[in-house]
Write a structure and sequence with these properties.
With 122 residues, this protein is an alpha+beta fold. Helices cover 25% and strands 20% of the residues. Strands 1-2-3-5-4 form a five-stranded antiparallel sheet, covered by helices on one side. The structure holds 2'-deoxyguanosine-5'-monophosphate. The site of 2'-deoxyguanosine-5'-monophosphate has 11 residues, from loops.
Length: 122
């Protein structure tokens, strides 16, 4: 899948659409999800043009990958989520219901998040 330069997160990176920013550095931008699924719900995205985790892990440089993961850890710490716990999650493709075609890692925290996913036969 080719990267769509007009996806909503590309517009946020370019400053064409506002976001509730919580962190930014050379490699990553973090902002609050517009439709939060937990008291704390932040998205951490690479600044480079990567469609999903598949694209990112295949094509991004080591510096970009390290930068994004460092940013995830820093954001989680800065938001005070480490003591009680947080979940990081990324959706790739149809079955995972990826909506926005720019790689993003969700950070959820602020409540008991329950089990990770439903059992296979439910
Ligand atoms: P996913 O299903 O993993 O692709 O999740 C995409 C998330 O992006 C979803 O939780 C809602 C969020 N989102 C979509 N559009 C916007 C937007 O314009 N601003 C912000 N802050 N979040 C958005």
């Amino acid at each position: 899948m080719a990267y769509d330069e007009n996806n909503i997160f590309a517009k946020i990176i370019r400053g064409e659409i506002p976001c509730d920013k919580v962190y930014e550095d050379d490699h990553a931008l973090a902002f609050r999800d517009i439709n939060p699924q937990a008291p704390t719900h932040v998205l951490v995205i690479p600044k480079g043009p990567y469609v999903s985790s598949d694209d990112f892990t295949e094509k991004a440089s080591d510096a970009e990958i390290a930068g994004l993961m460092r940013a995830v850890g820093k954001v989680a710490r800065d938001l005070g989520t480490v003591a009680d716990g947080y979940r990081m999650l990324s959706n790739h493709g149809r079955d995972a219901h990826q909506e926005v075609p720019h790689f993003h890692i969700h950070i959820f925290a602020g409540k008991n998040l329950g089990r990770m996913i439903k059992p296979v036969d439910s």
